[in-house]
Amino acid sequence: MSKPLLRFAPSPNGHLHLGHALSALVTWNAAQSLGGITLLRIEDIDQSRCKPEFTQAIFDDLTWLGLTWPEPVLIQSERFDLYAEAANRLRAMDLIYPCFCSRTEIAEASTSVDPDGAPLYPGTCRHLSNATRIARLERGDPVQFRLDTEAALARTGMLTFTVIGPTLHDRPQIRHARPERWGDVVLQRKDTPTSYHLSVVVDDAAQHITHVTRGRDLEAATDIHVLLQMLLGLPTPFYHFHRLLLGDDGQKLAKSKGSQSLSDLRALGWTPDDVRRAVGF
């Protein structure tokens, strides 16, 4: 059998913080305990926010922590054509449709929220006629492309995936995926031929990832990933969901909130062992 393959996949839209260090250490430790390898992936599909200097900072921070990975590193922005190809396969199944609704229109029309707490898309544009869709596309209206989740589930039926944890050697648990609670998620935008959901399943399959470690904040998103894997004929890895580091406000650490970065801590004199102790390793 080939070795287990795991991956650490940060986005270079800011500097890594202690939460990223926890996730990285969980992943590398899991790979070691399984006799496997951790690959590094740079998830930079958001070209408006991702910067080359942040990519280099990721390499620097992980090297400082004493972590290593095989080369070459997969860079998502170099693979847009492959994600578009995957989306076109779904389009050929009549499972993707254009949506012209603004965020404000969705918020006003929505009557519930998705697992992340955002307004759940009510499916407005799913019911547009082909003539209307063509006319609006030709007119150049702002558009994003959504997965018809109900139609997709009609193809796949009930979906399950395997969760391993908390040590990755415990008895596996079989869970039922519930993609319907996400509604019709966005898979493509006019200016970006992919989304996190689509690119992550394409790349996990391309890199032969056998085990995915991710924070509990991404646990619910696994529902959509399992659905896409089934639709595209891709393997479903084992999943492990690790704890999150919380700030003084009780919320998870985040780049957007200015959580103290690893480079800041390094400048203050922290050592890699200090980081390990701080995150519970």
From TrEMBL:
Looking up InterPro entries in the UniProt record yields:
aa-tRNA-synth_I_CS, Glu/Gln-tRNA-synth, Glu/Gln-tRNA-synth_Ib_cat-dom, GluQ/Sye, Rossmann-like_a/b/a_fold
Class of the enzyme per the UniProt entry, highest EC level? ligase
Return the PROSITE patterns for the record.
Answer: AA_TRNA_LIGASE_I (PS00178)
Q: Which GO terms describe its biological process?
A: glutamyl-tRNA aminoacylation
Please, which domain of life does this record's source organism belong to? Answer: Bacteria
- Which keywords, in A-to-Z order, does the entry hold? Aminoacyl-tRNA synthetase, ATP-binding, Ligase, Metal-binding, Nucleotide-binding, Protein biosynthesis, Zinc
Q: Does the keyword Ribosomal protein apply?
A: no
Question: One GO molecular function term?
Answer: ATP binding
* EC number(s) per entry: 6.1.1.-
Family named by the database record: Belongs to the class-I aminoacyl-tRNA synthetase family.
Q: What is this protein called?
A: tRNA glutamyl-Q(34) synthetase GluQRS
Annotated source species: Devosia ureilytica
Gene it is expressed from: gluQRS
